[in-house]
Amino acid sequence: MKKQIMAVTLTAAMLAGLAAVPVWADDAGSDEGKVLNIYCWNEEFKTRLTDHYPGYEEVDGTHGKIGDVDVVWNITPSDDNAYQNNLDETLLKQADAAADDKIDLFLVEADYALKYVNTDYTMSVADLGITDDEIADQYQYTKDVMTDSDGNLKGLSWQGCPGTMIYRRDIAKEVFGTDDPAEVQKKVADWDTFKATAAELKEKGYQMTSTVNDSYRVFSNNVTSPWVVDGKITVDDNIKNWVDMSKEMVDAGETATYELWSDDWSKGFFTDSNVFSYFGPAWFIDFSMSADQDGSVGKDGGWAATEGPQGFYWGGTWITAATGTDNPTLVADIMRTMTTNVDVMKEIVTADNDFVNNKPAMEEMAADESYGDAVLGGQNPLAMFCAGADKIDLSNMSIYDQGCNEEFQNAMKNYFEGNATYEEALDLFYKAVVEKYPELSY
Amino acid sequence: MAKNNNHKAVSYNKWGYIFLIPFVVVYLIFQLVPLISTIYNSFFENYRSGLTQIGPNFVGFANYVKLFEGGEIWIYLKNTMIMWIMGFVPQILVSLLLGAWFSNPSLRLKGQRFFKTVIYLPNLIMASAFAMLFFTLFADGGPINAMLVHAGILKEAYSFFSHAWSARTLVAILNFLMWFGNTTILLMAGMMGIDPSLYEAAEVDGATSSQIFRKITLPLLRPILIYVMITSLIGGMQMFDVPQILTNGTGDPMRSTMTLIMFLNKHLFSKNYGMGGALSVFLFIITGILSMIVFRFNKATDGR
């Protein structure tokens, strides 16, 4: 069976190389499935495919067509782990499912990618016929995320998610006298100056960040050990640094303790709030900051981006092929088109302000004076993103990252709000993690 | 003749059993079998780590040992009881009052039908939707805080969900609002079943209305009261949706609003049927004991 798939994909790859016509048009129709099942958690990838994949026709909210193949979208929101629960149940039944019901392609995020990558439920991209040469321009970290313990690459991404610090121009002008990213960067060059600046902002009635959790990822991406070492939960020193800094900032009223994505947190996207900055990558600026709404800071281009105290990444979506797919050629073609085709990728940058996973293309656009992000008042943040993407180090990832990150922030909220000591909150964190992953100890 | 009678009795019995079949079948399939399999599951190590299934391996009482190890389970039981009582006490008082008013013919209340419908309405809203509404209303930047600050009652927004007692109170208020209508209807039905001649006799003897309530209504209402208490107790022990949504599943602050079923839900992340089973058995036993206490207590005073 595996050989057959290999043969099909290799032939297809050759055909695709020889003729510029899309593979599905004449070849895939013959012996491959007529239904392409895609599992994901929001509309992002669907929009990307609709807008940029040649030959994709939208039928209705959850259906599309590529040639004579029906594309079926199974979109389950990530809230309360619903996406993964649904995906897991379906994947576990994958072997027995009818060909048209099998998952062909699904999306994963970095926080839990290893959970799927380290299993046989995901296909290696080499088995799909995608060679190392084709993906040589992709950022190394995007490949590291999807590499299993045996060194097989299991998925590809069209985007890179290096983050920046996004601040309000009007507040910067009022407090520091300038909104120039280079000048503001000096005010947040490292965590000590960041904290001093927070005090300066507080005096003028502004909050440095909307919540302590805004800076969490900046610390958690710069750890020196993974969350779990030999089955034992460990808290890295850098995470502890975050706790100490955050506690002081909360006590001083320089930030708050809201959860990310809550209403109170996102109030800072609007001009009538006193929040100075957020931390986020390209998709955050374009997709999440309510820039299309009246009264938002982004609507009039009121934000600007700077590197911030430390580099980090946030999120990112990876495409992976489910083992047992009956559309390997089409899946491979989607991966190729979306993650290696320079024209399509540049189109994504200009149309959606996304940061795409193609080093030369991004570096070229970073130097392009004519490109600018309207939300950032026309600033071209790509050079910053490029520098950030090169520095991302994912050597300390584990399959427990998602649960540990979530529970740590939940538990520490109690410490920040004065309902518990650090030790009590830490104890609560350990307990909550063991509830989620009974095989761990502390 | 006697033989004939006997034959008749037997055939009636047969019908009795036939009519019982649907209930027994449903009970066996949906109650007894799950109950036994829950107990059975509680003796196994059986969970999922990522996509890898661990177990089931027989581990004896290991799950129970783990359950009681840290002693948190008693805290969650205490939280559940506290929030139930905080909601139940006002609920039963308001329901008794409303029931007495509605069933008292001498008051001749107008628009009874309307009010009976209105007080029952909160129960028709999904608990999670209701909790979402409260979550938004009482958020730091929500309308309640905005109003309190504007009116000068508070200097700055009060984080209702960051303080144990305000969070518990909100849970209790929600449960009270959702269930007092239901209890009122039940108590009212009980009150209307009391023979009116007893009230008339009491009135003729010159009893005041509060005397009538205490000496006639309450004692005769006891069976219904027991029923209401036990069903509410069982419902209260299984409290989940309201605190879960209101605290985003964390039971914050410091798990002071974490109920037993929320704790059970925590184990479902890893599909941990062993721990889930052990916790369910614990809940089953506690509910049984509490129901017995309520039952005995009421029976004892009934005997006089």
Automatic annotation (TrEMBL), chain A:
Tell me which positions the record assigns to the signal sequence.
1-25
Q: Name the Gene3D superfamilies for this protein.
A: Periplasmic binding protein-like II
Write the record's keywords in alphabetical order, separated by commas. Answer: Signal
Protein name (Swiss-Prot/TrEMBL): Carbohydrate ABC transporter substrate-binding protein
Native organism: Blautia intestinalis
